[in-house]
Amino acid sequence: MKVLGFESSCDETGVALVETQPGGVPRLLAEALHSQVDMHAAYGGVVPELASRDHIRRVLPLARQVMAQAGCTLAEVDLVAYTRGPGLAGALLVGAGVAVALAAALGKPALGVHHLEGHLLSPFLATVEEGGAPEFPFVALLVSGGHTQLMQVEGVGRYTLLGETIDDAAGEAFDKSAKLLGLGYPGGPALARLAALGDEKAYPLPRPLLHSGDLDFSFAGLKTAVMTQHRKLGPAPSQAACRDLAASTQAAIVDVLVAKSLKALKETGARRLVVAGGVGANLRLRQQLDAGAARLGARVHYPPLALCTDNGAMIALAAALRLQHGLATLQTDGAFDVRPRWPLADVGAGGVAAA
């Protein structure tokens, strides 16, 4: 079966076509993505109304591009999937509305997918050269601008929350710290590039909840510490000082993420760790996780680098895997809703459309 997926939860418009394979992992036939980064950069962050309007402009041209790239017609699509939540309400409504309308026009079912489930399952699209697909069970670190969670994953739809941030996400800490340093938006990748040139031991920044004994995270206090240190540098800090502060900030965030992830592996006895979400592209995080997991006799799986950010491929994949495992509650009446707030642990095996 061929599954067409739409992603529009925030500031990326993604469309992709995935094909299921009997007894195998679904394969990606084609995908297209438009990022709104340049548009939002002038405002220092995502403007929801502008995001929604841009999704409207981009979604259908991207869908045509994907179908042409795959050499398929819309008549060959068997299921249309879309991001139901969590995310920005207006942005979600664009993707959901287009997907459900298209499914109704084609006489095919639609399926709303959880955004984080897409991220969690995205490493299943990795090629052998990229490390191959993971095997169940595993621990998943979902880390992005809006989410930082550790999940125990027994199978598709079988998710148990182990720990999550009690305030800000790791990606937000990256972005806000980068903004302090005048690095613009999105700040995470820019801060990482600057950090590569600095001394990570220059400033003794805190590692919140590092020794809390649980698997929860907290990054609000770290953001405050970075701001305080930046003020101490004066109104015009030197380039060297900025490089060192970037390196120290990155090290503090990475140290906490790595320590909690390794603790989760030890507590669950899992031998596989899946890392997904935009922050999962951070090279220092990958190096530290790989080294730490190796000491435990475990292995880390990542999605293809291009699929670390939001994309349509992960949505089509999640729908395809749910379909293969008999967990898809399909929509055939043309009705839909979105869930801007939606805990992944609530999805479960009972169906992604569950309230």
What does this structure look like?
The structure is a single chain. The C terminus is likely disordered. This protein is α/β, with parallel strands linked by helices and 355 residues long. The protein has 2 domains: 160 residues, ATPase, nucleotide binding domain (Nucleotidyltransferase, domain 5), CATH 3.30.420; 168 residues, ATPase, nucleotide binding domain (Nucleotidyltransferase, domain 5), CATH 3.30.420.40. The strands form 2 sheets. The chain has a 5-stranded mixed β-sheet with strand order 3-2-1-4-5, sandwiched between helices. It has a 5-stranded mixed β-sheet with strand order 8-7-6-9-10, sandwiched between helices. β4, α3 and β5 form a beta-alpha-beta unit. α5 runs antiparallel to α8 and α8 runs parallel beside α9. 40% of the residues lie in helices and 19% in strands.
Number of strands: 10
Biggest sheet: strand arrangement: 3-2-1-4-5
Give the number of helices: 10
Low-confidence stretches: 350-355
- The shape is globular
SS strand fraction: 15-25%
CA(first)-CA(last) distance: 27 Å
Rg, please? 20 Å
User: What's the number of structural domains?
Assistant: 2
Secondary-structure element order, as H and E? EEEHHEHEHEEEHHHHEHEH
CATH-assigned homologous superfamily of the largest domain = ATPase, nucleotide binding domain
Structural class: alpha/beta
Q: At the first level of CATH, what is the class of the largest domain?
A: Alpha Beta
CATH topology of the largest domain: Nucleotidyltransferase, domain 5
The level of helicity is 40-55%
